[in-house]
Amino acid sequence: MTSAPSPPTALYWQYLSGFYPNLPPEVLASFTTCWEQTVWDDPQTPLDCNNLAVIALIEAEQAEGDLRAMGLEMALAALMQGVEMEPGHPLCVAHLALVRSLIGESEAAFQTAFPALIDLLQFAYTGEVFPLGLIYWPQGDYHLLADPTTIESIFAAATGADQAMRLLAAVLCHCQLVFYGVSGKRFLQLAAQLMPNSARFNLMLGLAHLMQQQWEGLLYLHQARTIAPEFAPAVQALYLAYRPLQPEVADFWLHHARELAEAQPQSLDWRWTSLDANSTFTYLPFERTLLMAVEPNLRSIVTSVLLAEADWFEAEMEFWREQLQPGMVVIDVGANVGVYTFSAAQKVGSNGRVLAVEPFSGCIRCLQETQRLNQLDWVTVCAGAASDHHGTSYLALQAASELNEVISEIDPTLGEAFEAITCFPLDSLIDSEGINRLDWLKIDAEGHEMQVLAGSDRLLTEFAPGIIYENIAGDKGSNTEVAAYLQIKGYRLFRYQPYLKNLMPIESLEQLQGSLNIIALPNQSG
């Protein structure tokens, strides 16, 4: 690349280089023209407003607290000005939808993006020309477009209409709660059509099908691997997909992956190739430096999400990572394979403690392997279900372990799809594990939350930890019973606003609707 231009376009130059270090000359030339033609001090056109908003968003991304909020407000003001100048201007509307998605306003993002894309199709395919503009997509820990093929698809669009359509399609995928649901698959299909050379979108589309045993998903996995032959998640997904279907084909992909791994012996992406073909877990990188053992099948939500997105999808993970400090003590109830557990372990360090409570034997094996593999001696795996009593219960096993449920009696319709499990109150850990403080409690118990809390009275009374709990499990509605109980116990309830990192108070139980997780803080926490 040639020397950078002067501010404010120098900021975009730096941003673009970080995203796309080998920018083709023709793409560079088109962006240079955008920079030179933009009126920065007094925007005259919607495109000026769009470009100004993009610079404000980049500045906001690099800031924290009030400065981030100020940058976001500036960007929103510029985008709204552009829309006032020209209602429906494609790039202004696309960036407006993106901003709403980033701050957790998913429904508003969808309502902005979808009609805009539908309207744009007529113009895009009948020859009406929209000039190219500057494009923003967040860097940092937003992984949806975290592969070179997708970035190239977005930034190398030939026209402004192409830019806007691809950006709108990406936003529609981003604002879905989960990529593998009906709506998620629908918009992944759209994104893959608009960006056929995106390995990431083809991977996600393939996984979305295979999680529901729709074997045509194999086509998209093969396309992802063809686009990026050394794209580790695509190769691993092919191996896992064929493992129960055609073991001899799975062996082919394992052998191929081992050959690729030889050229990258230090890469965590390929460490799964060191495992035997009959291993009860596979490995995936997590938080850049951690290697996690996960279930070796694509019906597992955690396995497929980490393959697809390289991170856990819940917005509260950002809050979790911000709040946890060295030396803290954390209990993760319903740990599954340990996304929250091992994220916490990275933050609290060897002077802290993390207790992972999990009843399912398959997930217990994964937790123990991750603890061993990464030498996390301050993580304790507590096998069993947190409840309101000591005793034995049963775990109804679902196709995805994340949906397993504790039941008191065996349901004859389950056949052999259950496990006998040990139950215990969390309060018993005070003595058995020598707990003398508790900073955070995370609860994901698939409808068993009230029993968990009933067995945690002493922990809540003596230590008043912060709590993150699942508000919506499966097709159930909001967990108003848990919310009311915690309010009686002296807790205030919040939902989390990502990107701006705000806690939004919940003043009534009706405001719980639509929030997957709720954060509860004791009143004395200020």
UniProtKB/TrEMBL annotation:
Specify the signal sequence span: none
Q: What are the residue boundaries of the Methyltransferase FkbM domain, all occurrences included? A: 332-493
Keywords on this record?
Answer: Methyltransferase, Transferase
GO molecular function per UniProt: methyltransferase activity
Q: Which Gene3D superfamilies match?
A: Tetratricopeptide repeat domain, Vaccinia Virus protein VP39
InterPro entries per the UniProt record, alphabetical: FkbM_mtfrase, SAM-dependent_MTase, SAM-dependent_MTases_sf, TPR-like_helical_dom_sf
**Which Gene Ontology BP terms does the record give?**
methylation
Superkingdom of origin organism: Bacteria
Q: Which PANTHER family match?
A: METHYLTRANSFERASE, FKBM FAMILY PROTEIN, SLL1173 PROTEIN
Q: What is this protein called?
A: FkbM family methyltransferase
Q: Which species?
A: Leptolyngbya sp. NK1-12
